[in-house]
Fold:
Amino acid sequence: MPATAPAAPSAASSPTFIRSDRIVVGGAGVLVLLSGTAHFAGWNSVLAFLLAAGAICLLASLVGRSVEQLGDRFGAGATGVLQSALGNLPELFICIFSLKAGLVGVVQGALVGSILANLLLVLGLAFFVGGLRHGPQQLGSDRARTIVVLMLLSVTAWVIPSLAHFVHAPASEHEKTFSAIVSVVLLMLFALSLPFSLRRDANDPKKEPAGHEPPRWPMALAIGILAVAGAGAAFVSDWFVVALEPTMDSVGISEAFAGLVVVAIAGNAVENVVGIQLAAAGNSEYAFSIVLNSPIQIALVLAPVLVIVSQVFGLATLTLVLSPMLVVSLLLAIILAAFIAFDGESTWLEGASLVALYGIIATAFWWG
Structure:
């Protein structure tokens, strides 16, 4: 009689921390402590900035792990929305503290840079790594097309205030009010998009996806770690911004580059890591959902919320009027991602091309 396979340990009975969990938790704790010490003790600004950036990345990774341990029991769409929403918390805090410090250029660069980083760098690396390991990867054509169309529409709506400014339309004389109105409309559009994003597809069964382990932590533990990591990100984001301005002066980088590259990559560490890991494991549909849900939420939620918060709470005023270079880079990235996604399949060469384009755009903003 064949031996019965031992039952898998229940995540509800006792938590299981694998080696990488312990490294992330311990590393985040150490870097938060060092970052706080650097901030309050007045250490060198560049060192304080690097410590804060490292702490934010590990806290963002911890947020991602906590969401992962809540389980993919909700399906690819809902998990992608939750992962992206909570993964954007560090960037939200950084942008709020940057507006408080008057660094509007950093915030605009960070918002556009987050979209570019996800559409070009992270998606490109996911296609490249997944393609090399597994060949052409399927993206889930129906969901992919809908996500890309929604993203294209939301970003197009986002740049209309910039176009009004460039052509000197009458609306350009009311940039603050126009940006606030557009922001409210985008938030309403996000609310309308949630039922689609959260529903399960017929080909999205209630089972763990390929290359994905069942949750190892009880739900209460995952929620607790999520709350602690989110609170830690709020504190560290303040220290990060305090060290950012003197660091820009010391290193000689512009506000645009700092926002477009440095803040965007640090604030989106969850998507940077999780999306690439999922693609490497052959779980391309989940990777695509997580990576692309982030720019959608930036365009539909994060940017509109920051526009409204800046006006309501008396911070440095943020509008949706961007520089021509930011607008062109944003639209080119959206159009290229749409062309690649519409056939429902990705290759490693497409991924390499997206990464190369990101490098070119980032270099263009080095000088401002």
